[in-house]
Fold this protein.
Amino acid sequence: MKKSLLIKFAIISFFARIIQKIRIVIYKLKGYDFDYSVIVERGLNLDRIYQQGIHVKANTLIASKVTIMSHDHCKRIDNQPILADVYIGKNCFIAVGAIIMPGVTIGDETIVGAGAVVTKSIPSNCIVVGNPARIIKTGITMNDKAEWSNWIDLNKR
């Protein structure tokens, strides 16, 4: 029984990796600037007006229901929305339902908590949560799978 579960898991993992690569290619064809190592789940709400304004670096994981905006309809110049690039660093984890507003830069190795609304730029190596997002922990490190790697060391303090 255990061997059959391992085989099933291996098959599912194989196809999941292929689907991830296809998603990234589709996003790149649409104009988004995603590194090929980015992992994106289903159900993202990405800006459709200024796709080339969304930049995501290597090994970042973006969970489902995340919204990333790169234009602002409320602020206009000559009746045109303001376009503002969004930069997400490498080895980040953007949790379920987070909202990233236009013009924000998220540093490397950062965790954005579930449902957080990021309205201002966030430095590297920290965790942000809430609405608006606030830093609750600094000094974190993430690995190439967007996993928090020094959480045990930081929690012993």
Q: What stands out?
A: The mean pLDDT is 90.
